[in-house]
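Usage

Read records sequentially. Each one opens with the input sequence:
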Amino acid sequence: MNTSTKLATGVLALTVASLLTACGSDTSEAATDEPATGQSTDEAAQFSVEDPWVKATDEEMTAAFGTLVNESDEEITVVAATTSASDMTELHETVQNDDGSMAMQAKEGGFTIPAGGEHVLEPGGDHVMMMDLTEPVEAGTVVTITFTLDDESTVAVESTVKPFTGADENYQGGEH
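and closes with the structure output:
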């Protein structure tokens, strides 16, 4: 090996070592920036939504569905959801009224997903209600919904808009 090759090899080795050291310090800095509980990033990393979708509409409200998944060993509760597609977004459940009819209402306490479990959001059942839509929600587009978990972490989920007829329950407990 000539002197130029040795010098180039040495510079390359120092550069790689510097990059590896820098990567290691970034990781440790990120770990020290976590909240004291250490749960914010843990819950968000263990939460996902399978097959997320939104009902297409040109009306004032629609709903989002999918399967909330908790891959952690502790329960996770979804306490809120937001989207730029609507001015008001709520977590809803569908309940039976005294007269036997089905009605939607805000879900007190949110959706709790058991450790290692799932919680299904479906037409006629629990769902994310999007009210006061900012524009029509057209089939084939994508709506991003941001879920807030009980540790205050958030997870953004892209949901495909699909045509759907059915699950036309009444809304109970509000102006809609």
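Summary fields computed downstream for this record:
- Confidence is low (pLDDT under 50) at residues 3-40.
- Residues 1-30 form one domain.
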